[in-house]
Design goal:
Layout: E1 5-9, H1 14-27, E2 34-38, E3 50-51, E4 78-79, H2 83-94, H3 98-110, H4 119-128, H5 133-142, H6 146-158, E5 166-169, E6 172-176, H7 181-189
Parallel strand pairs: 1-2
Antiparallel strand pairs: 1-5, 3-4, 5-6
Helix pairs in contact: 2-3, 3-4, 4-5
Length: about 190
Amino acid sequence: MHQPLRVAFDFSCPYCYLLWGYVQELRRTSPVPVEWLPWEINPELELEGRALQPGAPGISQPDQLGASLGLVPSARTVLSNTHQALAALEFAKDLGQGDAWLDVVFPAHFVGDRDIGQLPVLLQLAQEIGLDVQALEAALQAGRYNRRLLDNEAYCQEHQIEWVPTVLWGQEKLLEGVITFSVFKDTLKTLF
């Protein structure tokens, strides 16, 4: 088994959604080991998120980079606070369901325009993949995964990560920011 790629990401980033989709596409033909490193890029954002106006900065289509793979994010109406969604990923990882969480949250947010900053939305998504909804709610309300998210923040600062997504191989930054599928695929060919 190869060492995994590490991907610093946030659920609010459309380019992270694209990278998730690229991983899904490559996994159709070969295993791509990925360790997703949740990094909250808008920690100051109020819990209720912020309404976005159509055409406002931050919700434009990311240049149709994923259109050929069917990865076209919708124009979102809310910039969601992702703290609880990222903490819930850590909960899901502890149960061996991290990939399932990513597979339900990214499409819900970027295709379904669901506000993943709202606890009822997260609990419904958790139910869809068979997570214990009551245990998740208790963990989130107790802040059980806050320390892990702070540790991820410290890791990103220590490794001078400035953009999401950032793809790391060991300690080396392979790719950062806006990444096309062809560049991602070609880069992985050199590793696996």
